[in-house]
Amino acid sequence: MPVGTTRSSRRLLIVDRHAKSLDDFLDHYRAYYASLQDYRVGPTKELAEKLRLEFDEPFSTQTKYAALDDRIAETAAKKDELLTVLSLPEATVWWFPTRTYWPQVKSG
């Protein structure tokens, strides 16, 4: 442990790293979700295929934050169910979870 670093400040660095991992993932997640909403407005076979392929990008992320990685894996396992909107654009895109679905990062 570096000089001047206490256990509590070291723990805060870990929490900050988790917060960044969560924020980075949620940025990708929200962008993908927005793409699904756009698809509902103007669905095409080409865009549906593109979105099917792009699903794996955010949902194969490994962050070294176990709680977040577990949630990502749970969501990825529901891929077919979650992408129903690609075959039924009139379906509700319901899978944008509340903040409580994702791991909570303590600040301060």
Quick synopsis:
The chain is mainly alpha-helical. It has one domain. 56% of the residues lie in helices and 0% in strands.
* Spans of at least 5 consecutive residues with low confidence: 1-13
Oligomer: single chain
Number of domains: 1
Helix-strand topology string: HHHH
Strand fraction: under 5%
What attributes characterize this protein structure?
elongated, about 110 residues, mainly alpha, disordered N terminus, single chain, about 0% strand
Write the layout of secondary structure elements.
Elements: H1 7-41, H2 45-55, H3 66-76, H4 79-82
Helix pairs in contact: 1-2
Describe this structure in words.
The protein is mainly alpha-helical and 108 residues long. 56% of the residues lie in helices and 0% in strands. The radius of gyration is 17 Å and the shape is elongated.
